[in-house]
Amino acid sequence: MAVGSLLLTPLSAKAVVVTFFSLFHQRWAKLSNSSVTAREKTSGRLTVIDSRTGREYLIPIADNSIQAIEIGKIFTGDEFDMSNRMSNGLKVLDPGFSNTAVMKSRVPLVDGMQGEIHYRGHNIDRLYGEYSFEQVAHLLIWDHLPSPEEGAALTKALKAGLNPPQSVIDAVNLLPRDAPNVSLVIAGLAAYTAANPMTIPTVAGRPHMYQGNMEVIDQSVLRTISTMAVVIALTYCHQRNRAFHPADPTKTFIENVLIIMGYVEEKSGLPSPKVVSTLDRLWILYLDHEMTNSTAALLHVASTLADPLSCCIGLVAAANGPLHGGAIDLAYKEFERLGTPASVPAMIRDVKAKKMRLFGYGHRIYKTVDPRAKYLRAMLDEFEGESRSNLLLRIAMEIDRVASADEYFTSRNLKPNADLGFEQDIIACMMLLSRIPGAMAHWREAAGLFSQVNPPRIWRPQQIYVLNAKSLVS
């Protein structure tokens, strides 16, 4: 059996003592009085001594990380070791990828220790309220804030994609009106790929269609964002037996999302300026959140060189799970079950007793307050009248009030959704739509790196095979 231990030691007094944990450096740097430069703190070498063989390995450290393939070079050389022979070297077992980085990215940074979010090096506090959603989306995707001409071109391109083929409308409308949102959205995306089969590399016979071809990639980014808006609007309209409305060429992307949904004021026939303003700010907060489960799902599919809409189908399916975006829907179902704010204290006691889980409360990545929370609460204050008349939102705020005063919850933070009067069943879809430009920024970054020199590498995690003694054949 391959059982033993690894001793990790520093190379010299000047070298940084490191572990595999990328966040360790952030904590250590605060405590260190060393004059070592920031670059030296995140690079160096790791000494590994394998107690099974006595062999010593020097593993390079760069950007406070090591290459997993270097761990695979640690090998006992015991040809009779079944597990070693099958695994071909030491593996790192990391269920849930809690400390596994799958790529390098320049798009976002979520600093859970400091409670900060950065988009392309810009702190979200600097972007919020100063720039529009479209401007920040441009920043995430193309790595700079747009000029007036670039901003106008982006708005025009997004509006141009808000006109769905009839086959897509029919595909969504053929499904039951009470079908789950996720089913309707996935059906709509699939219908779009069927209506545009030449965007699928295998159908077009162009396996490298999206491999480093920035012109095609950028066109696909814009088309995908608009497509997702259309599919969600069609879902909303179908479930309410409303007509899909054409976009207005004079309006912004967010205004047009509301227009095609028919979410407008009766008197003016236009979206409420207050709703547009709040949604514009809200979507900046939700635009990207680093390597989330759904973003990873999108990139996992993208590693096969699949088309971006197929990648988005993977994203939507992942986002629907109870431990991800589906928590929004589950939270509202729990609010409905409670029925009144007076029921909240008893529910909190059950949560503390681990009799139930409180969905939608807190975020494991933050060790301090979520930097978005203060802006969300301010938005709710702007809708104070609507909040008082919204029973479910009053229950949510009561949960926040009770839990915030309870020591058990002080390390967590509630992120209430500013629902702006939307029906609760569409809120998760609207949040999903706000995340698509960020997801496309990740997709563009990954696809743009592919070239003849840097060919794509399919994501294929490994497993640790555990031999069942009963299955051994003599």
Structure description:
With 474 residues, this protein is mostly helical. The protein contains 21 helices and six strands. It has helices at 24-31, 38-41, 68-71, 82-87, 124-127, 133-142, 148-160, 166-173, 181-195, 201-204, 214-239, 253-261, 273-286, 293-302, 308-319, 326-338, 344-352, 373-382, 384-389, 391-404, 424-449, and strands at residues 6-9, 44-50, 56-61, 108-111, 116-119, 122-123. The strands form two sheets. It has a three-stranded antiparallel beta sheet with strand order 1-2-3, with no helix packed on it. A three-stranded antiparallel beta sheet has the order 4-5-6. The longest helix has 26 residues, at 214-239. The model is unreliable at 8-39 and 414-419 (pLDDT under 50).
Number of helices: 21
Structural class: mainly alpha
Strand content: 5-15%
What coarse outline follows from CA principal-axis ratios? globular
| Helix share bin | 40-55%
End-to-end Cα distance, whole Å, is 18 Å
Strand order of the largest sheet: 1-2-3
Q: What sequence of helices (H) and strands (E) makes up the elements?
A: EHHEEHHEEEHHHHHHHHHHHHHHHHH
Overall pLDDT, averaged? 84
Biggest sheet record: 3 strands, antiparallel
Unreliable stretches: 8-39, 414-419
Rg estimate, integer Å: 25 Å
The beta-strand count equals: 6
